[in-house]
Design the sequence.
């Protein structure tokens, strides 16, 4: 028997599963594209391109997931979006 055959490695792979929640922003007839984009950049730390894409998705699809993560991190961000006048919720 060779050395390779004698040595057996045990590899334990554990999958860490955490529930990621989502902040969904909904379309409205009140906010301008610029306001939505600026708010997503400020609150959700989006790049300008990412914020613009999200604003277009919201406009054409009626809603867009703008942030995912643990509830503890999303709650204050969703509150800030709501305070800025956007329609948003965590699911």
Sequence:
């Amino acid at each position: 028997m060779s050395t390779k055959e004698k040595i057996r490695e045990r590899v334990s792979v554990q999958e860490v599963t955490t529930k990621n929640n989502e902040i969904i922003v909904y379309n409205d007839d009140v906010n301008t594209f610029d306001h939505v984009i600026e708010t997503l950049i400020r609150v959700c730390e989006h790049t300008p391109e990412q914020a613009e894409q999200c604003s277009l998705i919201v406009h054409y699809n009626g809603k867009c997931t703008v942030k995912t993560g643990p509830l503890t991190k999303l709650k204050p961000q969703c509150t800030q979006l709501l305070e800025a006048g956007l329609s948003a919720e965590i699911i």
User: Anything to note?
Assistant: The beta strands are 21-26, 63-69, 87-90. The chain has one domain: 19-90. The mean pLDDT is 90. Helices lie at 3-6, 33-44, 48-61, 71-83.
